[in-house]
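Show me a record, fold above all:
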Amino acid sequence: MINNKIKYTEFIKTEAKRLGFLSCGISKAEFLEAEAPRLEQWLNNNSHGEMRYMENHFDKRLDPTLLVEDSKSVVSLLLNYYPSQEQTANSYKLSKYAYGTDYHFVIKDKLKELLHCIQNEIGEVNGRAFVDSAPVLDKAWAAKSGLGWIGKHSNLLTQKVGSFYFIAELIIDLELDYDTSVTDHCGSCTACIDACPTEAITEPYVVDGSKCISYFTIELKDNIPSEFKGQFNDWMFGCDICQDVCPWNRFSQSHNEPLFNPHPELLSMTKKDWEEITEDTFKKVFKKSAVKRTKFSGLKRNVDFLKD
């Protein structure tokens, strides 16, 4: 049985690599005891702002066995999205993760294939794929599985790789050989805290989501509060500031996933182009993009907020 656990674990990690994942770590599916009080405190402080969905399924967020019956293992996976080219300097900015095809579709397909490979190789294994759209604490599981540590900006960080990657999970009813967590390597650095223009990182490792530029430009459906005028540093969808200034991201290397390459027009669009964007251009440039989440009207609102 022990040998099988090791054999199956090695098989899953090899297949994950073949499918293009940066890395794969595995944890025992169990209640996340350390995260429970942190999540409760974060919600009590209203750090989720209008993201009311964060209040739902509190127990499921902390216990994978409530999401997948008889689950034994959480397989965490990282997929690089760091681009080889960035937008022109005279532009309103998009978070780098949104340059190409919506990651939900790209990763979901890879996860389904991974589960299919596991079932073909091992037999009847039941499980579910999760990509940032269900009550799963992705970063906590990735950290528990040894894929990195949670940085002071609350993103997962990995030595030699940085943080420009997506996190996803397969929760399965198969016992495997489990990884152990790694140590924190933020040290005395406060680059992310010092650089955040809206002071959303209220203390090391704690982000007030309701002050984050990503929250304002993506999640918030109402008007952006006027007191934040002039603090967005030209970010119109998401924000990468805390990642861009992180010393560990000096090691970021470009992804090799063609679906994450941007629409040809995207990188050369100037502020003037964004200010004059039509709905037709929006649909063309962001045909399969995560930017569709904010809709044309949302992006226009963000651009107007930046330019006035």
About this structure: Residues 146 and 180 are 5 Å apart (CA to CA).
